[in-house]
Amino acid sequence: MAIKKRLYYFVAGTDMIEFKRRQLAGANCELSVVEMGDPAKPALLLLHGTHDHALGMLPAVANLLQDFHIFGLDLRGHGRSEKPGNYSIFAMVADLRAVINALELQELVLVAHSLSGHIAIRYAAAYPQQIMRLVLMDAMGPPRPQRELGGRQLAASLRRAVDSALDTRSRVRQLKDVAQAVDRFQRNNPDLDPEFSRLIAENAVEPHEDGGLRWCFDPAIDLIFQTYSEVETEQVASQVRCPVLLVGGELGLEFWRNLAPEVFNDEDWYEQEWQRRQALFSDVQRVVIAGAGHMLHYDQAAAVQRELAGFLLPTKLM
């Protein structure tokens, strides 16, 4: 597929950031990629979490634009990428492979948030010669339950998953206009710079079939969580050969507690899970961002930027 380029501009403080958008062929799915930074510098590829898009990762790396050639992938089902209805972890790893090949990237840094950690770990394990460094931002899923779930709990979980798969349309929220989208996003992320909020929200909407706008992700994307397990991710983590930075938020457990308070409600166990997962990698560092939750690059963008710069540019004075 031919590469299409469009120029966009984003004002961050007094700096003008230029970025391009390309459409590339993935694994039987058209994908959208944003490009910014210095083309003469090493490549860095951003991978966002569910219900987000590529530019949502910009708050984590805005300070690295002079040091890297930065690409951001809209995962299938998100942003300006196609929404084919086929959402599996394997398809997304294949999409990533297709994008890296199309961009002719030989050696690169991967920065992944949430769901994309499972994609990035698998890719780095399968193609270790291509990944120079890996950053995982709250990106290995919830802690394991302290006790093995019984048959009744597993059956209830299965029912919730099936009901969710059959009820995607009701979760497509209708928005009046871009202003409402920006306002809602800013209220949900009050600690994020307003310029970042505006950029992310404006690029996170598309026309709603009943009028107005909707967030541009397919609610069926949530089915991906039925296509893999955290155990599989942990099994291949030992094959990641590059240095790894694990970035967590001080308030990260709150995200999982809100989803299932009866399962995820023990701070000590949460910390033990972090330490156990850290030990899966052969070359790893871990940092905890004070005052940040699961969306740590929205909650404490400046602190995340400092930690990533310290890991990716260790010889540069921050």
UniProtKB/TrEMBL annotation:
Keyword field contains Glycoprotein: no
Keyword annotations from UniProtKB, A to Z: Hydrolase
Occurrences of domain AB hydrolase-1 (ranges): 42-299
Pfam family membership, one: Abhydrolase_1
GO molecular function: hydrolase activity
Gene3D superfamilies: alpha/beta hydrolase
Protein name as annotated: Alpha/beta hydrolase
